[in-house]
Structure formats: C-alpha cells, structure tokens
Amino acid sequence: MKVPLINPIQPFLDTQRCFILDGALASEMERRGANLNDPLWSSRMLFESPELVQQVCYDYYQAGADVAVSSTYQATFEGFERRGVGEREAITIFQKSIQLVKEAREDFLGNPDNRRGRLKPLVAASIGPYGAFLADGSEYSGHYSLSVPELMDFHRKRMSILVECEPDLLAFETIPNHNEVVALVKLLSEFPKMTAWLSLSTKGRAQLADETPFDKAVEIANQSDQIIAVGINCLPPENVLPLLKIAQKITSKPLLAYPNSGEKWDAKNHCWLPDAEKGDFGTLSLEWYNAGARLIGGCCRTSMKDVANIRKSLQNSL
User: What is the DSSP string of the chain?
Assistant: First the structure.
C-alpha cells in the first residue's frame, strides 16, 4: 500500500503563495565570531558552540524565514570519524542538530507577537553532497566517480538518523553530480513518509557542476512524488533565471532558488572580495518568483537582512 504523503510546504503556498527559506548559516556564524576553518565547517559548531547554532536559527525565523535548516550539511559519520568521534557520539550530534532547530522554533513561537500572521515555521535537515565530506570544493565540481549504489551507501546511515529525529522535511543541498541525484532520489524512497527538496549545484547556466545537463537532473526529481521542490543553490544570482527557465519546461513542481550573495570568492587567497557588489534580494526575488520559484532564500554570505527583504518584497507584491 502506498503511504500517503504530507507536503509540509503546501499550506504556505496556499496561504502566502511562496515559502521563504533562510540564509547563510556558516558565514552568519563567522560574523558572530565562529572559526569555521575546519573540514567539518559549520558542523563543528554542533559540539563547540551549539547555543550559537540555535541563536542563528532563531534569528532567521525572526527575520521572516518559514524554515530553518540544520547545521549538518558537512556532517557525516566518516567526517566525524576522522576527528576521533565514534559512531555513538556522532549519532548524538546528529540528534542534537535537529533538536537545536526545534528549540529555536519553540522559543520563536513562545512569543505571541511572532505567531501573529505566521504559519508554524518548519525544520529541515540538511544533507550535503559527498563532495562536502571531501572538504576540497568537490561540491562545486562534482568530479567524483562513485556509483549510484556507493553513493546510496554513503548517505544511508546519516539520512536514517536524521529522519528518525522527525524534521519536517529533508534538504538535499548543493548536489553537483548526476549519479548523486539518482542515488538520493532512490534512497529517499526507503523512507516513504519523508519528503525533501532537491537543490542542485551548477556550472554556468545549463549544466550540473559535473557538466551533465541540468535538465536531466530535473527530470529525475520530477519522477519522485517525495521530491516536493527542485532548484538551485550556491550559485551567482545572475545564473538563477536561465536555470529556472529550463526547470520550468520540465516540471510543475515548485522551484526553489537560494543563490550566494553576489560577492565574488577569491580562490587564490581564500577570501571574499570586499568590493564585490551584492545582489538586491528584494528585487531579485520577484524576478525568480515570476520564473516559477516558490521557495526563495539565500546561501553563502547572505544575511538576516536579505531574508527580511525577500519576505517584505514578496508579501507586498503577491
């Protein structure tokens, strides 16, 4: 018997016609003094400064986000093992990651003013790509040659633990590799009550990061009822529209877009260029909405202000 699916974002789309995502987690924690120069990246804060993780999630709810995403993008059993963290402790950390977001939501909803005019915001469990575990930038190239079964095996235990923590949905983020798209969609079917959004890492305006056609990845997502939205993240804002237009021809699922701030990364010196121009996310969000995006937010270097501008712009226009 087929398990009836509950789409947790549908009430938001029915009520406000859009779903506001949060913004950058890692760079926001860095703004607040966190040192994330570590292969575990933002996941390091789960055991070094969990109160900071919770506060950032709370602040994104406060800024207008309809969801906060857990700090597990770069968290894997294999990565924890490299740091001397055993399986039992790793499971506890994964459980803590979801609990922190849930506690942030409870604190937010504890203020009656925050409940006025707002649906109960969601908790999403972040699942990053195999390339994030490598911690060498492979999520932006997708150049790893694991088979679909190997990638399913890599993701299975982590996904199982996170699903057991009962987030509202999963967030497959920055997925750069065609085999990995297939693997995640197949693996999701092993958890028939769970839904996910699928967000792809791209190269240019028509390809996945591994240079396979972007439309082929969207087609794979379109075949799964459990994938409730598909789109792109962690890309320059100027590349969003062409990719949304491709996706719009393939699927009727809600599209999602949460690009970087528009600032440029200096790979040679490992820093963001200070004079690079940021995108106006209030204006851009309307362009993306008109191209089919319904889940809209920000990725690296975006801020509470960007999320607030997205919400204000869409609320005033829809």
Answer: -PPPP--TTHHHHHHHS-EE----SHHHHHHTT----STTGGGGHHHH-HHHHHHHHHHHHHHT-SEEE-S-TT--HHHHHHTT--HHHHHHHHHHHHHHHHHHHHHHHTSHHHHTT-PPPEEEEEE--HHHHHTSSGGGT------HHHHHHHHHHHHHHHHHT--SEEEEEEE--HHHHHHHHHHHTTSTT--EEEEE-EETTTEETTSSBHHHHHHHHHT-TTEEEEEEESS-GGGHHHHHHHHHTT--SPEEEE---SPPEETTTTEE-TTPPPP-HHHHHHHHHHTTEEEE---TT--HHHHHHHHHHHHHH-
